[in-house]
Structure prediction request, 93 residues.
Amino acid sequence: MNDLSANQKAEFVKHVEESQMKESLKMYNRLVENCFDKCVMTDWNGGFSTKQLSEPEGKCLDNCAAKFLKLTQRAGFRYGEYQAQHAPNGGQN
Prediction:
């Protein structure tokens, strides 16, 4: 990356930041979709029976979101470990 011009470096950083933002939004959307489908009760028409979440729905959403985030963090950590172990120098500097 040292042989890139300042403009190329800036463009690369911009691209990486955009990619990270897209991935963050995808993760958030998966969390919302999965937990909503799992926890929020709808009537037979697919509508909502009340304007407020019930207590069990709220607890379910809290637990679902916490589990999803823990899983995502753990997967990211494991991926980082894997990358470090399989780096060209074995993760050693």
Observations:
- The helical segments are 6-39, 55-85.
- The radius of gyration is 21 Å.
- The mean pLDDT is 87.
- Residues 6-39 form the longest helix (34 residues).
